[in-house]
Design brief:
Helices cover 32% and strands 18% of the residues. It is an alpha+beta fold. A hairpin with a 6-residue loop joins strand 1 (123-127) and strand 2.
Length: 212
């Protein structure tokens, strides 16, 4: 049986996807008790990851200065180096797939079996019965074990949503988001994950919040 492993090299990712992964892994590791002696320490990884996320956000609209782009590239190189170190530590620490995946990092594909899941074909934003809250719905994907949701309430200068990742979830139902602001238009998308990889992003749902 093939020993489960996490991907250690994420240099193939776009800046947007790498920033999303950095945010997700910080959230996953922040209160994770599976790796009490994480090496490098979580504080070091968190600092580099959040620095990259912040610098990537500055350059995302395409109007950053040359210095800002250079600083983003330096931050990218730093977080990629630490991602490799953290995932290598986890791979050596445990061969239990569920514990590895609790870190938020991605599983290495098995070329001999399985496939990455399909993307949900639809998404929906509905009003909740509770005030200042919306319900995020999407198609369940049979091959998926987790989903990454992103939401945006602001657009960049090109009119594209400024996405924020939400904590990973395992069910397509009962996913609420709060608080929302009356009159603000929210955008929502999701992609599915399993041990073989991740899907493309789903179609985007939009809805203007109405708070009683």
């Amino acid at each position: 049986m093939r020993t489960p492993k996490l991907i250690t090299n994420y240099s193939y990712m776009s800046d947007t996807d790498l920033a999303s992964l950095a945010t997700r892994t910080v959230n996953a590791l922040q209160t994770n008790t599976n790796f009490p002696d994480l090496n490098p320490p979580f504080t070091e990884y968190e600092s580099a990851a959040l620095d990259y996320v912040a610098r990537q956000a500055i350059t995302a609209n395409g109007r950053a200065s040359g210095m800002q782009k250079e600083e983003k590239d330096e931050a990218r190189a730093a977080v990629l180096k630490l991602m490799r170190a953290v995932t290598s530590y986890i791979n050596n620490f445990t061969e239990i797939s569920s514990i590895q995946l609790s870190s938020g990092f991605l599983p290495a594909n098995d070329p001999k079996r399985g496939r990455a899941p399909d993307a949900p074909t639809w998404t929906r934003i509905r009003r909740s019965n509770r005030p200042a809250e919306i319900l995020l719905g999407f198609e369940a994907v049979r091959e998926a074990y987790q989903y990454e949701m992103q939401i945006a309430e602001k657009l960049d200068e090109q009119g594209k949503p400024l996405w924020r990742s939400l904590p990973l979830i395992s069910d397509s139902r009962g996913n609420y988001y709060a608080p929302v602001t009356d009159g603000v238009r929210y955008h929502f998308r999701v992609r599915s994950l399993n041990r073989h990889g991740m899907s493309a992003w789903s179609p985007v749902a939009t809805r203007t919040a109405w708070v009683d």
